[in-house]
Amino acid sequence: MVKDKDQNITGMVSFDSPVEATHLETRFINDVNITFFMEDAILKNKPNQVVRGFTNFKDEIICSCIDVSGDTTIPIINDINIQELSSKLVMRNINSNINGYKIFQNGFRSNKLICKEGINGLKAEDIVTDSTNTSILPETVFNSLEIIESLNVENINNLNLNTFIQDIIKLDSTHEQTITGQLIFKENVHLAGDSFIKSINSINIDETLSTDSFNSSMQYVNGCTTIQADTAFNGNLTIDFINGKQLSKLYHSAALNTGNLTIKGNLVFNNEQSINTIDADNIYLNGDKVHHIH
């Protein structure tokens, strides 16, 4: 045999000293079936290995993840006594006795529970169940509560529930709702149905004018009203004063474009005018008296 060439050995070979080989093909070493041994061995760097049958580990094993489908006997895992831990666990699907004081941080649900000392300071007979009409006598704090059926309660978070229900405004209701007091809405509010509101933002609704041109009812304004923007009235408007001037007096003393007009006193035109006929005692044009007009 030479060490730098590939060789086929057909007979039995015994090595008296250690041998190192890059690649070796054989069936048995020291009367051990190498193929079966390699298939059944647990390798250090091979991922997702499956161990079948009974295996006894005499030394410590370190692994990132282990999944046991059957029974296993491991006394200590991560320096934790497994038997001691098992005696303190609450099994989900096994009827067992629980010893000691337990705190459940993510909620708790049980089909049947026998508790001698109580839960959260309450006696077992005072706790509400989903099958009896029992009542909670002392004040109780729930971190999370789901109500499936009816609940009779007087106060929630120091709020009287009866008063709260009477004062709420339902978003969808077939019955008329009456609201007393002042309400403040921080967002826009859309009223789809009829509503009767006394005032909005300290403005009396009865004193506002409707811009609906199809409103057949007469609208009245009492007192002085200041309009800061251009306003168009499509219907009839009855008004006594505009800008402090009596409108009826201005109308009777105004010179209209159409019809005959008798003016007592002097009349001065500051701009160009077109007049069909003038009958006047004296007429002045640009300061000069006009004797004849053709």
Q: How would you describe what is shown here?
A:
The mean pLDDT is 77. The strands form six sheets. The protein has a two-stranded antiparallel sheet with strand order 1-2. A two-stranded antiparallel sheet has the order 3-4. Strands 5-6 form a two-stranded antiparallel ribbon. It is elongated, with a radius of gyration of 52 Å. The protein has helices spanning 34-40, 82-88, 161-167, 247-253, and strands spanning 28-29, 32-33, 76-77, 80-81, 155-156, 159-160, 199-200, 203-204, 241-242, 245-246, 283-285, 288-290. The chain contains four helices and twelve strands; from the N terminus they run ββαββαββαββββαββ. It has a domain at 265-293. By secondary structure, it is low in regular secondary structure. A hairpin with a 2-residue loop joins strand 7 and strand 8.
* Percent of residues in β-strands: 5-15%
Specify Rg, calculated over alpha carbons.
52 Å
Helix content: under 10%
Indicate the mean pLDDT. Answer: 77
Order of helices and strands: EEHEEHEEHEEEEHEE
Low-pLDDT ranges: none
Write the layout of secondary structure elements.
Elements: E1 28-29, E2 32-33, H1 34-40, E3 76-77, E4 80-81, H2 82-88, E5 155-156, E6 159-160, H3 161-167, E7 199-200, E8 203-204, E9 241-242, E10 245-246, H4 247-253, E11 283-285, E12 288-290
Antiparallel strand pairs: 1-2, 3-4, 5-6, 7-8, 9-10, 11-12
